[in-house]
Amino acid sequence: QRDLTTRTIGRTIRMLDTVDSTQRVAREWVAAGAEEGSVVLAEGQTAGRGRMERKWHSPQGKGIWMSLILKPTVPIHFLPQLTLLTAVALCRAVKQTIPVECGIKWPNDLLIGGRKTAGILLESSAEDERLRYVIAGIGVSVNLTEEDYPPELREIATSLRIAAGHAVDRTELLQTFFKQFEDLYDLYLQQGFGPIRTLWEASSITIGRKVSVRSASGDITGLALGIDEHGALLLQLDDGNIKPVYSGDVEARA
Ligand code: BTN
User: Is the ipTM of this complex over 0.95?
Assistant: First the structure.
């Protein structure tokens, strides 16, 4: 790692060719004693997983498909904050690498021009209400061309290459992400969620919009005001009441 300037994040990287899912490899590695900051990186995934039981399209050599292992000593209810932190770090890394405007759709989708470019999936294990480990699964569509997307994704997804108009160096983006993540993670462990919350709100495309959130417990529609100190999305309902939403899928309303 020639240019790696981070202390822990990305210090140890396991680089694989094709795997089912880097999340599975990371979980086994944690069980075998992987240290905080260890990363599993694959060229391609045959069974990449997304949030809400969805599949994640991970063609060979075209993206960053990785799982980052974290061991923060915080209570389990801090998990949503780590999700948001990861999205902020990724958004900043993208902006630092190519001159595009990326925005975060709550909680942690990265969009360019309204199309999804990266996704984050956090999986964790806890003991006595404290996190034992977190595996941050990160998928960035870096160098996919239009033809690399199946028809059903063409309208709703894009890649950094399509957005920038040229191929993007995956290694550079990865190193920039590690640095951004480590800086924000240090800040978070020292100062709590406050600074991250401000950064997240500034990069969000959800705040200030009328949205519908679809979740297991039904749909809720309201004006997205911000996020609270736990990372929940604050929705102002038509009756004026403000409701925190902890998980779900956001859809913009007219
Ligand atoms: C989402 O937006 O639904 C989250 C997508 C997360 C995809 C990444 S790719 C690397 C890691 N391994 C997986 O199987 N999924 C995550």
Answer: yes
| Cross-strand bridge partners of residue 109 | 105
CATH architecture for residues 210-252: Roll (2.30)
Cβ–ligand 1 distance for 108 under 6 Å, the answer no
From the CA of 66, give the closest atom in ligand 1.
10
Domain boundary assignment for the chain: 13-203, 210-252
How many residues does the structure list for the chain? 254
Tell me: pLDDT of 4 over 80: no
Q: What sign does the dihedral 153-154-159-161 (CA atoms) show?
A: positive
Angle at the Cα of 151 (from 149 to 153), degrees rounded to 5? Answer: 60
Q: What is the pTM of this model?
A: 0.95
Could you tell me which of 59, 50, 48, 55 has the C-alpha nearest to residue 22?
A: 48
* Strand-pair partners of 70: 134
Ligand 1 atom nearest 108 alpha carbon? 2
Q: Could you give the CA distance from residue 15 to residue 160 in angstroms, rounded to a whole number?
A: 22
Distance of CA 21 to the CA centre of its chain: 16
Domain 13-203 homologous superfamily, CATH: Bira Bifunctional Protein; Domain 2 (3.30.930.10)
